[in-house]
Amino acid sequence: LTSHAAILAMILAQSVVAEALRPATSSALAHCAAPGERVRAYALHRLAINLGMTFGPTIGGFLAVQSYDALFMANGIGNIVAAVVLWYLFRRESLEVSVVAEATDAVSRSPWRDGPFLAFLGLMSLLMIALMQLNGTYPLYVHNELGYSEARIGILFGTNTLLIVLFEMVLVHKLRGVSPARLVGPGAFLLCVGLGLMPLGAGFAWLLFTVVVWTAGEMLAMPLVESIVADRADEKSRGRYMGLLTMSFGLALVIAPLVGMPVYEQLGANALWFGCGALGVLLWIGFAIVGARLSRSQAGPDSKASTQARP
Prior knowledge:
Radius of gyration: 21 Å
Order of helices and strands: HHHHHHHHHHHH
Strand content: under 5%
Number of helices: 12
Structural class: mainly alpha
Largest sheet: none
Shape: globular
């Protein structure tokens, strides 16, 4: 594709397909893993993603030096191979899903009428707005305000993915048996406070320390979110629940620069990062309240039936 219009049309089409994949993937993981194993299943999924984020730029950079055509061709071929492998591994799953659906006669819950779930999505959107500052204002701050090079910024992000790859599964295993709803709040607090700590110190070592703090919050909160939503929904409505979760992330991706950039430019970087730290306190309180409501009104009306029906 060479024309501007054709490229825009393909980006739109590719985005629709890619975002449709996310809730389907989350629902498939929920179906394949027993309720007590879902947190580890989603953590393993994040591990795979972060491994890709660790090696992807290196491979992509090598291919781009050779030829951008080679980069895009390799990316496309990789996706086709993944599609074939997934189809081969899960080609029998549609029959099992239909058996599970027939095994339950519960009325499917609508996520739009689930007040605690919608409140949870609102809090997650706020958390993601803070997290998405890493895509925009964070590199600007590190480069323009602190004077570090793009290579140093790459080290910071590489530290984040390396910590996740090395320790997230270990952390999830250690916290096995603890209610996920109790952990998201502290995780959100650490993630936001890690960003809020940046103006309080100087030097690259301090920046690395803040990366460790907000990465710890990310590892504590993010693997639990999909598990909470999967347990909240029933088999019939899980795709819709996951779709709304994906939509809340997409909404945060749009809002984050609209909020972060004006604050950064007009009020200064310190106001933005201290604001993220204050948001972390509010999110901890909010998740504690909503988590209690989710626990009291936990749905999963067919969770027992689905667990029994699943081989």
